[in-house]
């Protein structure tokens, strides 16, 4: 059995109709690859269409205000991707005459572009014989060849990259790379892979040795940290509120949010009230009450955020207050966007 040929044959029959599959434009390939990092196709598709419509070219994206880019990205998560996307667009548009590098090495020089993304763009847009190795490819290769080297170990990363290069179809690299990723996403899935109707089943080592559920092997490294986010939502007599921009490094940098109290455990109402004077914008408080009884759990890769919104009714107007309708126009984390919709409908 020729592994690469079987992947190509399967792909030509089963490939999904996706918009970035009908083009070799490096801008659109790059856009789709950045968006689909740690994001499912179904979730990323509307964002891809929105970005292409708003920014048809890399120059359009480069010229856009950061606020607009972040607002369009809202809800897609991992916001550093959006900031890197904007920075790279500016580099390509302003320093590279609007042309993406056409080699793997050149693409690695772009912010937010690592081994996988550089290989994907180089092969799909420019036909360079560069193997892609993403989560889907790790799974297909480890199962088919029966490799139990951890995919997130230094040895594993090197081994699978070499194996991917060894078995790739160089002359049809565009379709092959998309094919093996598609095969992992649709056929050789993490849970309940369709082994019964798999064209590779006769030679699949994991299937032969009953190890499909065990492969690929991944070392568990991260310990989840639980944090409590307490958003203080000022509400003036006229119904105005206040947002501030998150400037600290880390999650949601440059996004807008309500005044925030972070804690390692869930605070009581009296504990919240005792800390209100930390925020100059919150003065002459009339009353404070909890909006959501059950904390909203927002799961990030290394942290789970247990979020409660506290409504802080004020006696006086806010100096730089904005309406809740206006607040919906700001680029905010998705959990604040959801709160704004719910609060506006229930309060006004």
UniProtKB/TrEMBL annotation:
> Which keywords has UniProt assigned to this entry?
4Fe-4S, DNA damage, DNA repair, Glycosidase, Hydrolase, Iron, Iron-sulfur, Metal-binding
Q: What is this protein called?
A: Adenine DNA glycosylase
What the entry lists under InterPro entries is as follows: A/G_AdeGlyc_MutY, DNA_glycosylase, HhH-GPD_domain, HhH_base_excis_C, HhH_motif, MIG/MutY, MutY_C, NUDIX_hydrolase-like_dom_sf
Name any cofactors this protein relies on: [4Fe-4S] cluster
Asked if the record carries the keyword Transit peptide, the reply is no
Protein family according to the UniProt entry: Belongs to the Nth/MutY family.
Q: What does this protein do?
A: Adenine glycosylase active on G-A mispairs. MutY also corrects error-prone DNA synthesis past GO lesions which are due to the oxidatively damaged form of guanine: 7,8-dihydro-8-oxoguanine (8-oxo-dGTP).
Keyword DNA damage on entry: yes
**Molecular functions (GO terms):** purine-specific mismatch base pair DNA N-glycosylase activity
Q: Which species does the entry assign this protein to?
A: Euzebyella saccharophila
């Amino acid at each position: 059995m020729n592994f690469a040929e079987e992947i190509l044959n399967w792909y030509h029959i089963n490939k999904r109709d996706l918009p970035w599959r009908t083009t070799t434009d490096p801008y659109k390939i790059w856009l789709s690859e950045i968006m689909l990092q740690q994001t499912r196709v179904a979730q990323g598709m509307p964002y891809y269409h929105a970005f292409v419509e708003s920014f048809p070219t890399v120059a359009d994206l480069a010229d856009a205000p950061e606020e607009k880019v972040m607002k369009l990205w809202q809800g897609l998560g991992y916001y550093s991707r959006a900031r890197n996307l904007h920075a790279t667009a500016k580099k390509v548009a302003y320093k590279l005459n609007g042309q993406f590098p056409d080699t793997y090495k050149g693409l690695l020089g772009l912010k937010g572009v690592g081994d996988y993304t550089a290989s994907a763009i180089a092969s799909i847009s420019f036909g360079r014989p560069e193997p892609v190795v993403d989560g889907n490819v790790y799974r297909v290769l480890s199962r088919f060849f029966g490799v139990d080297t951890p995919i997130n170990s230094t040895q594993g990363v090197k081994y699978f990259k070499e194996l991917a290069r060894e078995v790739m179809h160089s002359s049809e690299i565009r379709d092959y790379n998309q094919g093996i990723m598609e095969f992992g996403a649709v056929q050789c899935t993490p849970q309940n892979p369709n082994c019964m109707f798999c064209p590779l089943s006769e030679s699949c080592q994991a299937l032969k040795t009953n190890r499909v559920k065990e492969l690929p092997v991944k070392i568990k490294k991260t310990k989840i940290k639980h944090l409590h986010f307490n958003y203080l939502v000022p509400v003036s007599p006229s119904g105005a509120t206040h947002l501030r921009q998150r400037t600290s490094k880390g999650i949601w940098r440059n996004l807008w949010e309500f005044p925030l109290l972070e804690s390692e455990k869930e605070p009581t109402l009296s504990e919240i009230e005792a800390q209100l004077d930390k925020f100059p914008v919150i003065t002459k408080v009339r009353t404070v009450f909890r909006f959501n009884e059950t904390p909203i759990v927002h799961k990030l890769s290394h942290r789970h955020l247990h979020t409660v919104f506290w409504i802080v009714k004020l006696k006086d107007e806010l100096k730089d207050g904005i309406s809740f309708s206006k607040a919906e126009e700001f680029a905010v984390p998705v959990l604040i966007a959801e709160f704004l919709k719910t609060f506006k409908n229930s309060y006004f």
